[in-house]
Amino acid sequence: MPWSSPGRDVAPPPHLPPDDPDTERHDGGHGELRKREQHEKDEKHHGPPGGRPPKESDETEAGYLHTYSAAKDLRLLYLDGMAAAKTSKGTLDSQDAVLFSGSLDDHPSPGGQENERARLACDMAQNELEGRIDGVLRMEAGFEIILCDFERDLIPVRITQVKQSSEEPRGPRDNRKHGDRDGPRKEEGNEKQHEGHGPRKENDGKRHMPSGPGGPGTLPHGGPGNGPDGSRWMRAITARYNGIGGKRVSLNFNHFVTVFTHDVELFEYNSTLPRLVNLSPEERAAIRAEVVDLVMTHHPAEVCEDWQAITDMIVTRYSKELSYFVSGSIDSIERLQSEIERVLSPFIDYSERDDVAEIEHCATQFLPSTSFGSGGIAARAVYGVAHKICSSLVEAGKGQVLESAIQGIRDLVGYLDWATWKECRGCAADEICVVPIWPMGTVQDYGSPQCKDASSPYDQGGENYWGGMHH
Q1: CA distance linking residue 207 with residue 63, whole number of Å
Q2: Where is the composition biased (Basic and acidic residues) (predicted)?
Q3: Could you count the other beta carbons within 10 Å of the beta carbon of residue 364?
Q4: Which of its termini does the chain have fewer beta carbons within 10 Å around, N or C?
Q5: Going by DSSP bridges, is the β-strand pair 251-252/64-70 parallel, antiparallel, or unpaired?
Q6: What is the 3-state secondary structure (H, E, C) of 154-209?
């Protein structure tokens, strides 16, 4: 649960005419939203602008895309993992079992209790954390923010009506009369769309899918709707596998809480996934207290190392090498020793061979010198993994039997389990790399991601990876 600080939208709000009484620069308010209210009043007294009679489909078929920019650098608590996925696999444990332990209503709700989680998160932010955070950042199909004060923290940029779900053709723009607008017409209609697919979140470049049985735009196997809308949605999601880009979110990797530093049982009953629901009330309370301390002692101006970038360098350096060593292409122990020496040669003093020194030089290659004595969790974790890689290579390089030496490297590869070894290769321009993204995807998609047509990536059978929905 590290700190995050999304940067502001670099695009300014649209310029409004100087004589507009609702201009934000005149009064600091949300002029665009008030313009909408005035628009509704105009319709009530004078009819729709341009004389066009309102269509029932305007209110029932189409939603509205709200685009905002942040009014400041937001201070958010980032919940790691797919923390917005409503599953029974543990994705909600950090919230339900730790942050809101004992407070969440046990009764099922149509929205998976998301409104209740948002209320509890903002109540905690405002009261227990004394307003030191503005909300919570989570991942599902993309990233989302539970923002506690829209009026204070967001500046409206624009509100646009999205394409109707029906295929009814709309006239070309040139045919519209002067003053014709397809903007919001009634508050009630607009709110109704928010319950379905009118986004209230920051515009992240993707449209929300129409709802269906089993989740947003789902098919019998839990996939999004087919066709161009589904394709655009999936392309937007998969384009962010390696991050949302632009430093829009800056994580403080020196300031976070992880249950892996606690002496607790996370893998009961031979589970392959860590769970927090089985922890005792005392263990949960201790972890929660760390989160509170994390927020209350954090200073936004604190400078920290980018441990994600350092980790990426280590993965880039060794991923292909390790894959090659276990590929079956090496047919003799002499060749394996030569290949390992090639990788380790920058750390070898050939005048005086010393395994301990070589491993240490190798393990600290990418670590900043200032981090050696810090004792931080991230520094210790990255050093520990790098040390295991280097020591395993040194040990394999001293082996005399090819199969046993390579088995040692296989064990290392299994321990690391890097995503680079499961990435799709060579997807065509109209394809995406398919992995389980709640509520979509199968067990096969998890075990062996494949390139698939972006217009119907989950249109196949198989056991759903996520199981039933969490209520």
Answers
A1: 10
A2: 23-46, 165-207
A3: 17
A4: C
A5: unpaired
A6: EEEEEEEECCCCCCCCCCCHHHCCCCCCCCCCCHHHHHHHHHHCCCCCCCCCCCCC
Residue 458 has phi, psi (to 5 degrees) of -115, 20
**Quick one: which of 367, 361, 362, 395 has its CA closest to 381?**
367
Phi and psi, residue 140, nearest 5°: -140, -115
Both tokens of 111, joined, read 């929205």
Residue 25 exposed, middle or buried by CB count within 10 Å (0-12, 13-18, 19+) = exposed
DSSP label at residue 469? B
pLDDT digits (tens, 9 = 90+) for 256-301: 999 999 999 999 888 889 999 999 999 999 999 999 999 999 888 8
Of all residues in the chain, what percent carry a pLDDT higher than 70? 72
Supply the pLDDT for residue 4: 59
Quote the Cα angle for 19-23-26, to 5°: 90
Residue 302 is which amino acid? E
- The whole-angstrom separation of Cα 392 and Cα 404 is 12
Enclosing H/E stretch for 216: strand 215-216
Other C-beta atoms closer than 10 Å to the C-beta of 121 total 22
Q: Quick one: pLDDT at residue 112?
A: 80
Would you state the pLDDT for residue 226?
A: 55
The yes-or-no verdict on residue 191 having pLDDT over 80 is no
- From residue 138, alpha-carbon distances to 69, 91, 135, 401, 402 in Å are 18, 11, 10, 48, 46
Angstrom distance (rounded) from CA 311 to CA 389: 13
Instruction: Let me know: does 365 contact 329? Beta carbons within 8 Å.
Output: no
Do residues 256 and 294 touch, judged by C-beta distance below 8 A?
A: yes
Ordered by start, the domain boundaries in the chain are 3-238, 307-421
CA distance 45 to 269: 67
Rounded to two decimals, the pTM is 0.74
Q: Choose among 15, 64, 53, 61: nearest CA to 180.
A: 53
Rounded to the nearest 5 degrees, what angle is found at the Cα of 70, between the Cα atoms of 67 and 75?
135
State yes or no: pLDDT of 303 exceeds 60. Answer: yes
The answer to whether residues 304 and 256 touch, using CB atoms and an 8 Å cutoff, is: no
Q: Give the H/E segment covering residue 142.
A: strand 142-147
Lookup: tokens for 375? 């004792």
pLDDT for the residue numbered 304: 84
